[in-house]
Design goal:
The complex is a heterodimer of chains A (111) and B (112). Chain A has no helices and 12 strands. Chain A is mostly beta strands and 111 residues long. In chain A, the strands form 3 sheets. In chain A, strands 2, 5, 6, 10, 11 and 12 form a 6-stranded mixed beta sheet that branches. The chains are: A mainly beta (111), B mainly beta (112). Chains A and B meet through β5, β6 and β11 of A and β10 of B.
């Protein structure tokens, strides 16, 4: 079945460091791919998405590119801030089916 | 009010209690979901409702009983829970199944 694998956390970085959180997926077709973020004490919210190969999703300085050849959707940000500290979830959805989430990666940014 | 609202935010109950979690969405969405979030586990989809009809039950124990009286409201009735059921229960909605999910802030449940 479909699945999402993302890097184990926690990830700890200093402010202004470069961030990469790896995500790979397994799917039978051509899924849509998402990154959701959960700030402390809140529910998840959509950060960015891509619906077809080579699409790049971007929001709040974060980017991720849909790579069909490597079945990956890695999240990147050039310069992180303390306010980016949160849990990040990679997810996929095939056709009009349910969304499948990875385990989440906790990110700590130190001032 | 807008978005997805969950009540209560925190709930402590004994194993013999009966309680309910409530979710309300003001987004005009057709699909609603219950997820369970436990430490160090993937987000677990429990139930999906589309146009008030249950379309998914992910082998959830019968001590969890969902109810969707209309497309804006979703309940999770709890009865004779176990301590391992302690978790954050998240409600979400989407315009259609598989679409962007909008989450509530969750109900933190502790079973003693």
């Amino acid at each position: 079945g479909d699945s999402v694998t993302q890097m184990e956390g926690p990830v700890t970085l200093s402010e202004e460091a470069f961030l990469t959180i790896n995500c790979t997926y397994t799917a039978t077709g051509y899924p849509s791919l998402f990154w959701y973020v959960q700030y402390p004490g809140e529910g998840l919210q959509l950060l960015l998405k891509a619906t077809k190969a080579d699409d790049k999703g971007s929001n709040k300085g974060f980017e991720a590119t849909y790579r069909k050849e490597t079945t990956s959707f890695h999240l990147e940000k050039g310069s992180v801030q303390v306010s980016d500290s949160a849990v990040y979830f990679c997810a996929l959805s095939e056709r009009d089916d349910k969304i499948i989430f990875g385990k989440g990666t906790r990110l700590h940014i130190l001032p | 009010e807008t978005g997805v609202t969950q009540t209560p935010r925190h709930l402590v109950m004994g194993m013999t209690n009966k309680k309910s979690l409530k979710c309300e969405q003001h987004l005009g969405h057709n699909a609603m979901y219950w997820y369970k979030q436990s430490a160090k586990k993937p987000l677990e989809l429990m139930f999906v409702y589309n146009f008030k009809e249950q379309t998914e039950n992910n082998s959830v124990p019968s001590r969890f009983s969902p109810e969707c009286p209309n497309s804006s409201h979703l309940f999770l009735h709890l009865h004779t829970l176990q301590p391992e059921d302690s978790a954050l229960y998240l409600c979400a909605s989407s315009r259609n199944p598989g679409g962007e999910l909008f989450f509530g802030e969750g109900s933190r449940l502790t079973v003693l």
